[in-house]
Amino acid sequence: MALIAASFLPMADGIHHMAMKAPRKLQLRKEPITPLLVTNNCPEVIYPGIGTQSGDGPAENGFKLEPGETRNQTVSEDWQGRVWGRTNCSFNDEGTGPSAGRGKACRTGDCNGVVNCIVGGDVPVSLAEFTLDAGDGHTYYDISLVDGYNIPMAIVLQPLQNVSLDDIPPNLVNPSCEGTVGLLRGQDYDPYPEFPEFLRTNTSYPLTFERKVDDNQASRWCPWDLQQEPPEKPGDGVYPYPDDNIERPAFNPCFSACAKNNKPEDCCTGKYNSPSACKPSLYSKNVKAVCPDAYSYAFDDQTSTFIIPSGAGFEVIFCPGARSTNILATESEKMRQLSQTGHVSKDNNGQSKMAERIKRDVFRRSNAARATRLDRTVLLVTLVTALHPRPSLSRHGPESSLTRNPAARGATNYLDGAPTASTAPANPRSDPQSIMAKALAVHTLTEGWSFKQADESGEDAWLSVARVPTNVHLDLIDHGKIPDPFLGFNELKAEWVADKAWTYKVRLPNGEPPQDGTVTVLAFDGLDTFATVKLNGDVILQSDNMFIPHRVDVTKQLKSESENVLEIDFASARLEAIKIREAHPEHTWVGFNGDMARLAVRKAQYHWGWDWGPILNTCGPWREVRLETYQSRISDLRVDYQLDDNLKSVSGTITTQVEGPSAKTVTFEVHSGDDLVFKESADVSQGIAKVEFHVNNPQLWYPHGYGDQPLYKVTATVSADGVDLHQATRRTGFRKGELVQRPDEIGKTFYFRINGVDVFCGGSDWIPADSFTPRVSEDRYRKWLEMMVDGYQVMIRIWGGGIWEEDVFYELCDELGVLVWQDFMFGCGNYPAFPEILESIRKECIANVGRLRHHPSIVIYAGNNEDYQVQESFGLTYDYEDKDPENWLKTDFPARYIYEKLLPEVVYAESPHVPYHPGSPWGDGLRTSNTTIGDMHQWNVWHGTQEKYQIFDTLGGRFNSEFGMEAFPHIDTIKYYCTDPTQLYPQSHMIDFHNKADGHERRIATYLVENFRTQTDLEAFIHLTQLSQAEALMFGYRGWRRQWGQKRFCGGALVWQLNDCWPVTSWSIVDYFQRKKPAYYAMRRVLAPVAVAVKRAHFDWSVVHARVPKTSDYELWVASSQPTELTATVELRFISVSTGKEIKDKIVKKDIKIAANGTTDVAAGTIDNVNEEAHVLAARIWIDGEIVSRDVDWPQPLKYLDFEDRGVQVTRQGNTIAISARKPTKGLVFEERTGVLVHDSAIDVVPGDSQVIKVRGLGSNDAPLKWTYLGKT
Q1: How far apart, in Å, do the first and last CA atoms of the chain sit?
Q2: Does domain 737-818+853-865+881-1070 bear CATH number 3.20.20.80?
Q3: Distance from CA of residue 996 to its chain's centroid?
Q4: 2.60.120.260, 3.40.50.720, 3.30.70.3400, 3.40.120.10: CATH of 441-627
């Protein structure tokens, strides 16, 4: 098969190719070798923008392109993304903002005013869209005007010496759209005499052009009201105004009808969500006349998408010249033949059976599908639509989902805590006017909102809201009412927001008068936090818990003859918390971090500030709001199962809870990929339908590195009288997860076993990825979690002071094989337990555990974060032997009732297959610092007694769920928030303000002074703090992983923390902008599937007055997570620090057996510190002739060593960097450049062992990566 037209090939069950998410096998990464050329043939400068939806994008996402200039970049073979052009741009010298200081930098296509785009382009904008590998062996691409039109463009295929692509006639694959007057050539224009290879075609294979449009039509095709800047005209009371005699500008960007109006009939949403109901608008018709091959509206796939075999590169050309092509309509027969035979036959009478079948299918694509996943909600009317995209980071955040068109924010999403929802077409034989079973209809209330400060009056007080979900800080930033709190000292300038009340309102869409048995519900997935909801002035809901979803029946309150207004008042959570605290003087309000009044409020606790985050107390509709109409719906879909002892079969029950009297039957299906493995129906009885199921030889779900992550799709469809009313879907995986706690010679084990395989859980703790979570996109979540997988991290712990995470977070963990430790949302405090808050907590936890129960990635629920440590620190009552819960409520530590009664009951009822642990840390009621039982937070490095990090491994327990070391972020991150250049020094006020840790100055100073020679230059200082962090985490992980192999003495270690919620100096190993710190790479090396380790015995130089011991013992070992025994060669060399020469014979152990999933001791010896010069121990291991791991142990402390003249050589060789050194070199770090990935950094280099670093995203003409090492001058 060579080429397939869109009208002959089904596209992912009707979803536009930009919504496709081909399964990505992380162990088989696609390389960034596909050319993506961008050429500017326009007479003016263009700033291209590039957005990556998946895969690895180019090195630069935005740049200046002079007339006639081409920029050549590369993307991965599985890249999915868009290219657009920005016009009339004016940036500041750094390219970090508009030259005017605020607003937009470009007239069209602007991406938050910066050169290097991190968000999608503002509408109106012409788009070139690509899905290079959809997982089916094909590449999909198109020119899209669904977001509007700004400049002409063409897409030109580059075959790359691919035989199957070379055979495709080039005039079938290179579309062009030319809709700008002055650039459009005449109707009979032939480009080939002047340009013999126009758009890589020629006279043998000439392009088919559209021949009807003339200059007059080209100047007037954009409907008057959709012009970006329509000319002034007299207001004659007629709309749309006739504009026959008004001259338009030559450059005339045009909104699409959907982008401008966001009406259901234009965006094909709501009741218009089908090709029969949603017809092409005037805009769409005009687009197809001017650019026949361009995609013009939601149901336009058949005449707009080009599909070829994978393997091509592409060139995007702005202002290609000539005229628009008309390929898909005029060359359909050739495409049909190519789809069947690979060549064009002279016989054009043949018919393709596949084409006939596909023609009967209806395909839909819309903006709503463009930044989404295919496995979530589907809304079926007569077609399938994609899930509403996750909120973007487009407002003052570091990254955005690609779609910013209003239509992209109007599709269906999940229903509160219930499963994903869909509806199906009504029976076509039924009379639509009669009272009949009616499918669920959903209108997501994303656009059209406004907000104001509650105590301000007048219509001018109301300000627009860009989108919901949102919070008030984002909306105030949008309107310039507060500066970006992440910059400089601006956090202080935003404090007043928390003490005000705020009101949001929106006009609801008009609906039909209710039919008998039909219910209309307002669904609120999350209101932050003290919310009074009014419909047409009447209070319909009061909420005081941001984690509880609400559903309100408003059938009787809605007016069918007039508009309906939804209004939500948000009181100040900070002030309400203080009121509650003052109303309960009997409670002991103590804890760590923030105002202790926060304990009274069911709200993200980090909003009160933490030792890594700002005080930004938010409010607003932080999750989705929907209007739903239905006669029956599935409110819950639950799968309970059990694997047999030999893991060869799985049996269980699938249960639905059904609302509405219309429901008669529920049909259940279980799919494994495309294979149907189970199907059964059950009648609805008292709102319940339930079936038993059995699957032989199930595919089992494993964490990454231990097996695959197959996911089964479980679907329930409720119907009545032959009409499918509602469908709910869960993706789940079958696995047997155990928390193994059994007595041993030390105390009691604490580790996880999945499907009979013991798993060492090296990983990270997770905090919310932003202070303003509505702007965290799916793509940003994916990048965080893929970083973990690439770093060999197996587990992530969702910390209890943040939020119950978005569905997409857990879906990605399921997909990528990341185990989840889920805290309940309690952190660092003595929480009250009066009746009202207990009931609120119960509802919150039932809703969220029920929402998450199907995720195979979740392997433990923990009751809180450090609340038992608060109990210990403040001497609160905790008698572990007292087992009467009513007694606990009478003590000064009533929260025990929550952690040891309420929460375990919820988990047992809602998710009984997941173990429950009362807190983190906690161990059978003993001191939380006990190292023999339970989990522990080891903070005696950094906090506490401030032990040397070289002994981290001796301080751990059975499972180290927190430990860490602070480090400065990347210099570019500091320059982002440090708005005063005079403050760019290590101890400046502004830099200190962006470090919230108590006593951070003395703690950082302690660890730097103990270990390194002092540096005062900012970048050198940053390197030292980062090297200190990398060393600390390495010493901990390396030793604890060894203990794993020693009878499972240590079951895992989770570093505090993976991420940041704002630009800050903290314990994170990757900063807010996803720039990795050296510690990330140090962890990656010690957590690798096979890791060699060497360590000399520690001596405390501070205690012995810097006296070096006469001898030091050393040990050499190998840790392996592999399931089978390996054969390896291990080498240990002894290399002088000062000369780089080996001071004695190396040790080589050949053909040694490396134990499976454990630790193997290789060698031990003694160093003569009196007669031997200072030297490193350099270890390597080979398996099957390949070096798989290195480790270098250094004399401590490093400050005593001279690192002058290391003889380091760093040489770029294509997509690799070769590194060598004449003398042992410590901590060689590469810069973290946006768009460039290195597979290793912060490395130690020794003579005779050159290392090769793989690099992606660094163009051949790009500047080399900067690098440094300890002691470099």
Answers
A1: 59
A2: yes
A3: 26
A4: 2.60.120.260
Tokens linked to 523 = 């669904």
Q: Residue 249: its pLDDT value, please?
A: 80
Decide: 292 and 325 in contact? Cβ < 8 Å.
yes
Cβ of 244: how many Cβ atoms within 10 Å? 5
Number of C-alpha atoms within 13 angstroms, CB side, residue 585? Answer: 1
- Give the Cα separation of 198 and 971 in Å (integer): 46
Is there a common fold for 1089-1100+1108-1201 and 1203-1272?
A: yes
Neighbours of 221 (CB within 10 A): 21
AA letter at 477: I
For 110, half-sphere exposure in the C-beta direction (CA atoms, 13 angstrom radius) is 19
Residue 884, amino acid: D
In the chain, count H helices and then E strands. 23, 55
Percent helix / strand / coil, the chain, rounded to 5: 20, 30, 50
Give pLDDT tens digits for 429-442.
Answer: 233 333 456 678 89
Give yes or no for a contact between 1206 and 1269, defined as CB atoms under 8 angstroms apart.
yes
Q: By the 8 A CB rule, do 893 and 901 touch?
A: no
Structure confidence at residue 159 (pLDDT):
83
Those residues of the chain that have pLDDT short of 50 are 1-14, 22-29, 234-244, 341-342, 346-435
Question: Any idea which residue has 């009208």 for tokens?
Answer: 7
Cα 764 from Cα 785, distance rounded (Å): 10
CATH topology for the 1089-1100+1108-1201 domain: Immunoglobulin-like (2.60.40)
Q: Classify domain 1203-1272 at the CATH class level.
A: mainly beta
d(CA 109, CA 253) in angstroms, rounded, equals 10
Q: Under CATH, to which class is 634-732 assigned?
A: mainly beta
Q: Can you read off the two tokens belonging to residue 19?
A: 């919504």
- Residue from 366, 346, 337 nearest 258 by CA: 366
CA 1094, distance to chain mean position in Å, is 37
- Tens digits of residue pLDDT in 217-253: 888 899 988 999 887 754 433 333 344 456 788 788 9
pTM for the full predicted model: 0.71
What is the rounded distance in angstroms from the CA atom of residue 791 to the CA atom of residue 1081?
A: 7
Give me the helix-helix angle, 1018-1045 and 1000-1011, nearest 10°.
80
Give DSSP secondary structure letters for 571-609: --HHHHHHHHHHH-TTS---BSSS-GGGGGSBS-GGGG-
- Structural domain boundaries in the chain: 32-210+283-344, 441-627, 634-732, 737-818+853-865+881-1070, 1089-1100+1108-1201, 1203-1272
User: How far apart are alpha carbons 172 and 306 in whole angstroms?
Assistant: 9
Residue 38: beta bridge partners? 71, 316
Fold of 32-210+283-344: Thaumatin (2.60.110)
| Active site residue ranges | 866
